[in-house]
């Protein structure tokens, strides 16, 4: 079931186009990453999804319905750092937050527990580490037991310890079946915590799908046949292999192709040989995740 559906969303701020015809769908139980460099439209997308901003065109639906007070209650959001009171305890701060949100105060204890803060609940907020402060911010999104969490750059400004704590918490929440939408400019973060990703660049969607297929560290191979042979038989043989894609001529001669994860260059060599194509050269190019991300957003 689609928890969130964005259909052809566009948004301009004066002369700046922040989002151009963005469509995407977040399925129940997924951890969906919105990945893109600064200014690519991630925060705008979250703002439109949550109804904090108004779209110039397009539509948003949650649980198959337009955004309403009722659908909003099923979504916990962390768009900017909440203002907690430094001298109040974690628990007192969450009780206040529950009051402001009209959320059941009975959900405070569970939120503290999920965030791993039960043992420190009576300590003042000011005594917390950066990671604990952010975990408390995440706990406040859990008040009222929403089905979905929307988080904008949840590890921004944290030290490495805090980053690790917050990522672990996000994974724990995902393990509990929450659907989570996260905006981040960190490839590493998306790769570590997300099941799905949409790559945004200058307000446009560049790619979307399961992290394993969009950001898979798949290899490319460069293939050469003897110069006096036509590449037609090679191209034909490649087209017959479902695990080979994106065949392109190389500037230095020969062709390159992408191998689906789990398939090797040796396997390709054998398959081509079996179909009568003898290679004069076969070279593997390992592509890093960064290289793929840069390629997507270049
Ligand atoms: N209130 C605003 N007024 C004018 N321009 C804006 C406003 N908010 C965002 N923009 C512009 O819209 C574009 C998209 O911004 P947005 O904040 O959605 O991107 P982002 O990917 O979340 O980046 P960042 O991580 O830096 O927040 C940028 O060019 C930004 O400068």
Features:
11 helices, 298 residues, Rossmann fold, binds adenosine-5'-triphosphate, Alpha-Beta Plaits, four-stranded antiparallel β-sheet, 29% strand, 32% helix, elongated, 2 domains, alpha/beta, six-stranded mixed β-sheet
Work out the strand percent. Answer: 25-35%
Round the mean pLDDT to the nearest integer and report it: 90
How many individual β-strands? 14
Do you know the CATH topology of the largest domain?
Rossmann fold
In the CATH hierarchy, the architecture of the largest domain is: 3-Layer(aba) Sandwich
What about the largest sheet?
A: 6 strands, mixed
- Gross morphology is elongated
Strand arrangement in the largest pleated sheet: 6-7-8-3-9-10
Distance between the termini: 33 Å
Helical content band? 25-40%
Number of H- or I-type helical stretches? 11
Task: Give an overview of the whole structure.
The structure is a single chain. The chain folds into 2 domains: 214 residues, 3-Layer(aba) Sandwich (Rossmann fold), CATH 3.40.50; 78 residues, Alpha-Beta Plaits, CATH 3.30.70. It is elongated. Strand 7, helix 6 and strand 8 form a beta-alpha-beta unit. The model has no long low-confidence stretch (mean pLDDT 90). The chain contains 11 helices and 14 strands. The chain is an alpha/beta fold and 298 residues long. The strands form 3 sheets. Strands 6-7-8-3-9-10 form a 6-stranded mixed sheet, with helices on both faces. It has a 4-stranded antiparallel sheet with strand order 2-1-4-5, covered by helices on one side. Bound molecules: adenosine-5'-triphosphate. The site of adenosine-5'-triphosphate (ATP) has 12 residues, from strand 2 and helix 1. InterPro entries: AAA+_ATPase, ABC_transporter-like_ATP-bd, ABC_transporter-like_CS, P-loop_NTPase. It holds the Pfam family ABC_tran.
């Amino acid at each position: 079931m689609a928890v969130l559906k964005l259909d052809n969303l566009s948004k301009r701020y004066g002369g700046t186009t922040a989002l151009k015809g963005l469509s995407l769908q977040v399925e129940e139980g997924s951890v969906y990453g919105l990945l893109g460099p600064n200014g690519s439209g991630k925060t705008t997308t979250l703002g439109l999804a949550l109804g904090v901003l108004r779209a110039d065109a397009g539509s948003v639906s949650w649980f198959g319905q337009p955004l309403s007070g009722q659908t909003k209650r099923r979504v916990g959001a962390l768009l900017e750092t909440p203002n907690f009171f430094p001298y109040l305890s974690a628990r007192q701060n969450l009780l206040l937050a529950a009051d402001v949100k009209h959320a059941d105060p009975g959900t405070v204890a569970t939120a503290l527990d999920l965030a791993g803060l039960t043992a420190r609940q009576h300590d003042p907020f000011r005594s917390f580490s950066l990671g604990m402060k952010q975990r408390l911010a995440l706990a406040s999104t859990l008040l009222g037991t929403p089905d979905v969490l929307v988080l904008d750059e949840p590890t921004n400004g944290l030290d490495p310890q805090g980053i690790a704590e917050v990522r672990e918490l996000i994974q724990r929440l995902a393990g509990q079946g929450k659907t989570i939408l996260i905006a981040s400019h960190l490839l590493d973060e998306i790769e570590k915590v997300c099941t799905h990703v949409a790559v945004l660049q200058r307000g446009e969607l560049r790619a979307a799908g399961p992290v394993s297929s969009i950001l898979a560290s798949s290899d490319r191979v460069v293939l050469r046949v003897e110069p006096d042979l036509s590449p037609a038989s090679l191209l034909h043989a490649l087209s017959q292999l479902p695990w080979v894609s994106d065949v392109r001529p190389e500037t230095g001669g020969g062709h390159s192709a992408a191998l689906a994860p789990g398939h090797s260059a040796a396997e390709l060599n054998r398959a081509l040989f079996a179909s009568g194509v003898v290679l004069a050269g076969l070279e593997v190019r390992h592509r890093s995740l960064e290289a793929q991300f840069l390629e997507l957003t270049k």
